[in-house]
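Annex B. Sample input.
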Amino acid sequence: MPDLSGDGLQCLLDVLINRIRGRLKSKKFCVAFENDLEPVWPRQELSREDRYQLILAFAAANDWEATINDPGIRVTFREKKMINGG
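Annex B, continued. Sample output.
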């Protein structure tokens, strides 16, 4: 079981953030699968709705959009679309 307190969780988040950012530098989207999501948002410890909301908050905090195709299967991250060209 991963360390989900303080530094352990932040380390897992940093790994996921860096993976997504790296992918978005060269692609329009990044798909994260269950093996990417489970260490950060464990299904056994979170309700489906809580997990969904945490993933969306994570995306928003990093200026990404997230399309969740079942929070237990995959999430597609994209850069937020700019409105009015800015």
